[in-house]
Structure formats: C-alpha cells, structure tokens
Amino acid sequence: MPATRHLPNPESEDLIALTREIASKELAPHVTDAERTGTFPREVFATLGRAGLLTLPYPEEFGGGGQPYEIYLQVLEEIGAAWASVGVGVSVHALSCFPLFAYGSDEQRAEWLPGMLSGEKLGAYCLSEAHAGSDPAAMRAKAVRDGGSYVLNGAKAWTTHGGKADFYTVMARTSGEKTRGISCFHVPAGTPGLEFDEPEDKMGLMGSTTATVRLVDARVPAANLIGSEGQGLSIALAGLDSGRLGIAAVATGLAQGALDTAVAYAKDREAFGKPIIDHQGLAFVLADMAAAVESSRATYLSAARLRDAGRPYGREASIAKLIATDGAMKVTTDAVQVLGGAGYTRDFPAERFMREAKVMQIFEGTNQIQRLVISRHLAR
To answer: pTM of the full predicted structure?
Structure first.
C-alpha cells in the first residue's frame, strides 16, 4: 500500500517509481537476513549510488541529483519504508557531505565531491563523544597544527558507518574556546591513527554499523581543514537541521511500513467470524496510525519547502523530527499490538520496526533537545 504523493512533475514521479522498484528488488529481499546477522549492506549503497539516489539534493555539476529537498526526502522515505538501516545510512552520508559542499574551497570540492556524490565513496559524520552528545561544544577531541598538517587525537562515539566508511567528517577542538574553538576536517579512511572499536551491540538497526572512532596521532594535511579554524561548531549545527529532516523522512517511512504490515495482517486475520479490521476497536487503532503517518509526512514536507525556498527552517526541522519520530514509536508499537502474539515474534517484521523506531527519538538530537530548540525559537 504505497504512500499517496502529490509530486510536482513527471521527473519526480519517475524518481519515486525508480526508488520503489529498487526498494522492492534490491532492498526488501535482503533486509531480514541482514538485520538478523548484523551484516552491513555496502553493496546496497553502491547500487543506490549508481542509480543516482544516494546524494540527490546536491548539484549535478559535482555528481549529485540536483533535486529539491521536498523530492529528496520523499525518496528517502521510500528507502526507509523498505529498510530503515539503509535510509539512515543515506541520510548520514548526505550529512557527511554537507560541510564540504557548503563550506569547502573550490579546490576541495573539485577534488573530493565527485567521488562522494557518485556513490563511489560512503561517508561518516563524527560529532558526538561519549560525554558530549546533546552538548557538542563540550567535545574533547583535539586537532593540533604541526607544520603543514593537523594531528588529531580523541574518540568520536556513536558513529554511523564507523569502520565501514571511505571518509570521515570529523569535528575536533583546535583551541580552548568553547564554541569557537572547534574545527571541521576531512579524514580519509586508511589515515594512519584512524582506528575503530568493535561495533555497538544495539537494540535495532543491526544492518547499520555504529562504532566509536578513535584518533591516535592521526595526521591529515592542513588542506583537509574545511572552512576556517573555529568554524566547526557552526558548520555542524547548520548541517544538523538538514540531518533532522532526513531522520524525519526515514521515521515516516518506517511508520508507513509498520502501517502497511498491520493493515495487511488485519485484513487476513479473522476473529469472531470476520477480519479483525472490521472490528471497530482495532479499526480505530489503524485509523490513528494512518493519521500519524500522514501528519509526519506533511510536517517534514512543510519544513522541506521552506528550506527549498531559502527561508529559515530550523524550528520547523525540529518540529518535523519530533513529530515524525514520536509518531513512528507510537505507530510501530501499535503495529505489534495489532498483530498480537504474532507481532511479538520474529516471524513478522513488526517487532523489528518497533526496535528501530526507538533510536530515532534519540539521534540527530534527542527529542528533548528538539523541544528545547522549538521553545527557544518561540521565546525570541
């Protein structure tokens, strides 16, 4: 039961159709086994890259798709509906490309962006630390200038694609000043001193590798500094607004997948002589689930349209992330309830959807942080 979409032109309709075809043929057949075994689906990202779906919102001149965020996010939602781990990975990759695209020099963009945007290279975004998640200004990882290089030391926690990525966008402290002492670096995989802990043993999203990245006297050329010294925190915060919209879209897709599973089961399962969807008590649960999915979609699309128009959208991005991820948690929990005992087994994907939804209320800024951002906007 695919989502009903109002798309602006035939090109975007073809893009959604292509995404659904790839999701059906290349993602859906592998998701169950990969999630149960914790297998990282690197080839899937290569497939999305070859199809032009990995970095849609970036300009064509660098290898991107040149699509507005309104369209990119709907593609991302379709991917998330088929496989949340991959949807999160696409969003994180787009986020890891943002600093270079928005703040890099012409030389840096010409050298690195084509490979990053073609799908040839997969990125990771290194901002959080074990003691500095909601408060990134408290980070302790350091980068010290040494001649024509910077030497990086520290640990970056909860890194999506940690140990699997081809490049790492790393925020590290270059001075003791709290907010203006952080800088942004492009660190290629294979850099001596770039090390990785064992992947986290997580509750969900097992197909998405998450690991601590350790920097042990990791030396990168000074030319790998993105933007200027001390600009890193503002770069990171600017990117997070877009990243929050990405997670809102993935969460909406996850909720759509849970709704589809619940409706299909409710039509097939009978109780007291009729399909359980015909029992009002359960039908109303499904109706509330559908309303939550549609509300989430409308909210992230509203924020995306502001972004595409060049207008401020930070508050709206936080609202979208809050609504979509809280909604996904409720919808996936209700999906398990609709399936009853079957929903609690791994014979059906409902239990996986529920586990995957939880982390979406946490990463890209916890939903408590989203409420803080929203309330501060209201107080201005």
So the answer is: 0.95
